[in-house]
Amino acid sequence: MEYRKLTIIFVLLFAVLVAHAQDIGVVVPDSTVDQLYNAGNWKQLINFVNKTVTNSTDSPALHFKVGYAYMLTGNYKAAISQFNRVLVKEPQNTTARLYNYYCNTYINNNSAAFYSASRLDQETLRGIKLSPYGLTDATLESGIKLPANNERDNGFFERAGIGARLFWRLQLDQSFIFFKQNIFRSRFIDYKNQVGRTDKQTEYYVRAKYSLAKNISLIGAYHYLHTSYRSNINQSNLGLFGIKYDTRYIDLQGDINWGKLIDKTLKQYDAKVDFYPLGNLNLYTMSRASILNLSGVHTFIYSQSVGFKILDKTWLESAATFGNQDDYLDADGLYVYNSIDPTKFKCGESVFYQIGNHALLNLNYFYEKKTDIYRAVKYNQNSVTLGITWKF
């Protein structure tokens, strides 16, 4: 009997010690976090939580404070992750949802931002500065292509685009595009007037993005092209469907493009990975692998970009694309590389400069290796594009 009593007492004492240890494990971190939070020591708060608090800890108050610290130190992707954990337990936490909205706008993720805004009350929404017409952005681009080929004239590219929010979770982007280039070839040239054949292309592009969930978006796009060259006129129709999934530091996208381009049947399968190691746009990479099926001929194309902030309001982005880019579709099918001569390799540099709170100026330079389809000779081409985007 005495043995049983001692066993029961030992078990009770052990249970009390375990409960006390658990209380200490919660109280001490919370107390330290509160002190760091109230003092505004954001980096120390983040370091303390990362070292002492396990991932299994599910305290909304703790996640909110850590998320706020991440937001103020510029790690917006990590802040979003913390605010999302708050909202799982407290879906009516307006402040966490509002901060989630702002963090997504800081990394240009409108789909996730508008998903958060769709669940805010009207009073909170009135504090967000948005276009009363639902406009999100407007873009103008103008470019020139300079081929090192005496049978190719300079090419000219123009694009005007507008983005709008139809509903909180549905955005629509539209672009009108024009391209023109004179093609000289011995039997086409009017030697008296020095006039060759003109390659003209007028295009309309529309893309819809629907926020299915806080970190999942569906993408659909349509691209119409009216192409005239020599005595031929072609009307091409291309479509795209894709899905994008956002994680803490990596965004994943898969999509398929299909349709008829000039006289070729096209299918293109893309897998894209965007990586934000700092949780913001101070450093990012974009990797994209594509399989292009052009009337039964398969081509593998790989594109890699690296962007980083070099000065206040100034970013650089380096990019290269490898593979035969004949009729290659880029940027969710926005850019269609179906020029007379295919591009075999492309690389370049882009500079982005923020003007005020709304305007973003960009200057792009690209170097291309191309092949003349009539003479089977290789030549180089330099392209320069100037653009400006206004964010409402």
Q: What helical percentage do the residues reach?
A: 25-40%
- Unreliable stretches (pLDDT < 50, length at least 5) are 11-27
Q: What strand order characterises the main sheet? A: 1-2-3-4-5-6-7-8-9-10-11-14-15-16
Terminal CA distance reads 80 Å
Q: How would you sum up the global shape?
A: elongated
Number of domains: 2
Task: Indicate the structural class.
Answer: alpha+beta
SS summary, helix count: 7
- Count of individual beta strands: 16
What would the CATH topology of the largest domain be? Porin
CATH class of the largest domain: Mainly Beta
Largest sheet descriptor: 14 strands, antiparallel, barrel
Helix and strand run: HHHHHHHEEEEEEEEEEEEEEEE
Rg on CA atoms, Å: 27 Å
CATH architecture of the largest domain: Beta Barrel
Mean pLDDT: 90
CATH superfamily of the largest domain: monomeric porin ompg
Strand % is over 45%
What does this entry look like structurally?
The chain is about 25% helix and about 50% strand. The protein is of the alpha+beta class. The chain folds into 2 domains: about 30-125, Serine Threonine Protein Phosphatase 5, Tetratricopeptide repeat; about 135-390, monomeric porin ompg (Porin, Beta Barrel). It has a 14-stranded antiparallel β-barrel with strand order 1-2-3-4-5-6-7-8-9-10-11-14-15-16. Strands 12-13 form a two-stranded antiparallel sheet. A hairpin with a 2-residue loop joins strand 10 (about 295-310) and strand 11 (about 315-320). Helix 3 runs antiparallel to helix 4 (about 75-90). It starts with a helix and ends with a strand.
